[in-house]
Amino acid sequence: MIFYDFDLFAPSPWVVWMFAQEKGIKFERKVIDLLARENRRAPFITDVNPLGELPAIVLDDGTALTEITAICEYLEDIQPDPPLIGSTPLERVETRMWVRRIDQKIAEPLGEGFSTEEGREFFESDKANGLQVTKTVLPAEAAPVLKAKAREKIVWISDFLKGRQWVCGDRFSLADIFLYCYLQFGEHHGQPIPEEAGWARDFFDRMKSRPTAWQGEAGSLD
């Protein structure tokens, strides 16, 4: 399998990479030049993902798979141990519930808050450069609202999960990887974990100590 990755830290592909490494699944890693917008041009948009986004993997038969949870579900199916989505129907639905909450309530507003403010010039340049695939950037005044929404839900999840080791209790799962990767991104791009989110801060420290955690520099779009 070929795993397509950015040359800078990006939370979406890192969720898949970390998930695979926790399972002991090995990929051939192909780095995409984010700054050169290689992901917005052929052959990537013709052969891998027409949306020009990561994560993406290409199987040995040439089949391209995209989207975080879809790829992770596939990897769980082909290598069930260790179970990171779940080994019972109840465990699986609990993991999927929390992944959905984290994705919709934290990851999406956090990511859009970044692209609307810090990443605005970079993403707006796509249209100026005549790329076929571009990102719609929200109005600048949306940035503080989006960031406040993400911050509010980080505090909420921290209060709700107080006393747990992991998102799903004692069971390490995809939900933990998902949350960690977006907290990691926020820490280095103007959206640090709120001081009042004590559980989230402790959780982040636990995750950083895992061998599969991100060890490189944060990177910049400049």
Automatic annotation (TrEMBL):
Keywords: Transferase. GO terms for molecular function: transferase activity. Residues 1-83 form the GST N-terminal domain. It comes from the Bacteria. Residues 88-222 form the GST C-terminal domain. Pfam families: GST_C, GST_N_2. SUPFAM superfamilies: GST C-terminal domain-like, Thioredoxin-like. This is Glutathione S-transferase family protein. It comes from Croceicoccus ponticola.
